[in-house]
């Protein structure tokens, strides 16, 4: 029974923290636009130039060609 003297105040404090976090999120605008994010995935606007992975691959290909000496300064293969 003595443990209730500890558990009840701890649970009330945790409840207060949860309510404070919710109010903070609402005031911060976390719940303002709930429709845009789920709909963004439906739009196919993939731009390869803005994809960092594609850019790293292209840069890596150029870097490997320069290291191997297969191309000149303009990126053309020297035959």
Question: What features would you describe in this structure?
Answer:
This protein has 79 residues and is an all-alpha fold. 58% of the residues lie in helices and 0% in strands. The chain is built from three helices and no strands. The radius of gyration is 28 Å and the shape is elongated. The termini are far apart.
Question: Topology of this structure?
Answer:
Blueprint lengths: L3 H24 L8 H5 L11 H17 L11
Key terms:
single chain; 79 residues; mainly alpha; 3 helices; elongated
Short summary:
Helix content is about 60%, strand content about 0%.
**N- to C-terminal separation?**
88 Å
Judging from the principal axes of the Cα atoms, what is the shape? elongated
Regarding quaternary structure, what we see is: single chain
Annotation field: number of helices: 3
The low-confidence parts are none
Q: Would you report the number of β strands?
A: 0
Query: How much strand?
Result: under 5%
Structural class: mainly alpha
H-E order: HHH
User: Considering DSSP H and I runs of 4 or more, what fraction of the residues is helical?
Assistant: 55-70%
Main sheet attributes: strand count, strand direction, barrel closure: none
Cα-atom radius of gyration: 28 Å
Rounded mean pLDDT score = 77
